[in-house]
Structure formats: structure tokens, C-alpha cells
């Protein structure tokens, strides 16, 4: 990665904005974009919202666009190891120097508007995509949808993956309430696709969006190939496409199918969809990493629905029980996640993301795994040291994406960013 001396200072300022928290609303980010001459007008936007699967769908769709010869931007959050992971153009993470230069332009406008961390990052992504000649930007929604900063962009296509209980203090405590927030990214009369449960479809259709739903307008059949992913056959009003995805688990195949449906709505050819699906790589989501002669699965399941999908996927790989390294944010439904994971665990090594102030104290997590042997460690490095002493050929690290962001570079021997992480 290219870098210059301005980069650490730029990140110091930006990461300091995290302490001011999340402030839902679109007025500030719209004003910020206006001060930057509305860079989002230079490209077409696809918004990808939902509770789980957003990143996988967005990454798959961006790969399909690239396979079609379209210069695609991919905006995702949070990052795992490097802040620049959030900005990918034509399949390549943008260099630090380029991001730093764009951030230097965004900063005075952001300070004038009192913009929040995620509002700044969203505007930064729009500016970078405009500067780099992006034709279609696939933007992963941060939180909810209706009041998320990404919703200040005007999508030509909207995607809602799934709806489950997460961020209930902000979005509501029922699937219907959360679905109503997610539905805010839909636009009347414009194309949209979704993979939500059928009981939530009426709420989404009430927006007037031209909605195609998996299980209704479109059907997907899946043949699993274990560690090699799955074959998906998608049938929709746009025709049939047969693709192979490396994404693991039934939920990975579902995400690939939804991305393919979105690609069809953008007019992509079956060939581009097939090539893009096969080329998809999404780190930290059922990712198998070789380490010390064994395999470590990394997955960011941090809510009960995600944990249940993870367990189903691991069981489908022929694994009955395995050691878990687990840590999560204290504001999550930790009891629900642990209850889903416990039947899979031969033992649990509890830890916390060292750089996340939101991380739950690992000592308090042991009670959530009754009957399962637990070891408490103070850091990801200590957790991996404990895991190294075990003889298992396969282990799973799961929970917070911030935990994965600290574990993954340790496994791969890469440098870590080393900054406090809130968002």
C-alpha cells in the first residue's frame, strides 16, 4: 500500500469522531455532500441493506458488475484490518495516499456541518468513487436504512437481504419495526430485490417499489458442495442463470442468489453473473484460514440469526463439534448468540477485541455456555495461544467483526491498524 506522512494524522482525526456516537438523520450528510459538489451524482448507486448478509451480497454484486466490464465501487463497513478496505474500485482497495488526499478535502466540510464518523466516511466514499470514475457504486447500508447516511444517495436499485433482531435499541424490537426501517432505502417505482421472510413482504411492497423477492417472483435452488461452496440455479422474470459460488453455507448460497437477482435487474448477462459469482471473496464470513497446520474458520456472526446460520453451515460441512474462540460487543443479544453456538462447541475460549471499548468482559461470558468447558483470556493473542495448545484440526473464531479484525492479522502474520474501534 502506498502511504505518506499525512495518513496517520488523517486517521487520528477521523477515528476521534467515533466518540461522538451515531446520530441518525440525513440533513447533515446531505449538507456535507452538497459542500463537496454532490459527488454521488457522478455514478449510479445500489444500496444494500438488511440485518445479515449485506456484505456478502454487496461483494458478490460488485464482482458481477466488474465481470460485465463495468467500473464498480464497493463501499462496506466496518473494516476488518485496514480502514481502506471500505473503498474498493474495480476489485482493488484504494491506496492510503489517495484516501488521505480525499479525506483532506472532506474534513473542513465535515467540521463545518458537525458530521458524524459514518457520515464522513459515506461522503468520503462518494467522493472517492467520483474521483476514480466509478460507474456503479454498491453501497452497504450501515445501520437500519431510513435514516442511515447512505440513504442520502439516490439508489437506482435497492437490496434488502434479511431482517432479524439486531440494534433493537435504535431500530425497534420486532421484525416488523426493523423491516420498516430497512424499507426506507426502497424507492417507489424503482427496482428492488429482497430475501426477507414472506410475512414481511407486504410491508416492503407498501413502499411502491418494483420489488422482486426470492421465494415469490424469483426462485433459487441450491446444490451444496461442502468446502467448495455451492451451485445455485436462479429463475426469475429476467430468465435463468446457473452459477457457482465459493461462499459457504446455505446462507452464503442465498446471498449469492440475491446478488444474482440484483445483477439481473441491472441488466447484466448470465455470463457476467456466473464469472462474478465465482470470483467473489468476502473475508471474515465463513472464511477458512490455514494456521499452524490446521484450519481456522472466521465468521462475524454477532446476532442470533447469524449464529444459527453459522451453526447450520458448519454442520453441513460435516462438523459435529469444534473449539470456539468467542468474543462480542456487550450491547448484543449475547445470550441468544451463545445459545445458538453452544451445541457446536467442544469448548469455548473466551476473549475480547482489545481495541473495542464496546467489547464484553470475557469473564462474564462463561455463564452463557453452561456445561461447555470455558477458558477466559484477556486478548486475541492469548486466545490463539490457548487454541494452539489444542490438537483440533479445525477451530472457529466468531462473534464481533472487531474481534475478527484483530485475530485475522495474527493468523496471517499481517500488521494491524492499532486504533480504537467503535464503528
TrEMBL record:
It is an enzyme of class 6 (ligase). Residues 48-263 form the Mur ligase central domain. It comes from the Bacteria. Keywords: ATP-binding, Ligase, Magnesium, Metal-binding, Nucleotide-binding. Its cofactor is Mg(2+). One of its GO terms (molecular function) is metal ion binding. Its EC number is 6.3.2.17. Residues 284-400 form the Mur ligase C-terminal domain. Coiled coil: none annotated. It catalyses: (6S)-5,6,7,8-tetrahydrofolyl-(gamma-L-Glu)(n) + L-glutamate + ATP = (6S)-5,6,7,8-tetrahydrofolyl-(gamma-L-Glu)(n+1) + ADP + phosphate + H(+). One of its GO terms (cellular component) is cytoplasm. NCBIfam families: folC. Belongs to the folylpolyglutamate synthase family. This is tetrahydrofolate synthase. It comes from Deinococcus arcticus.
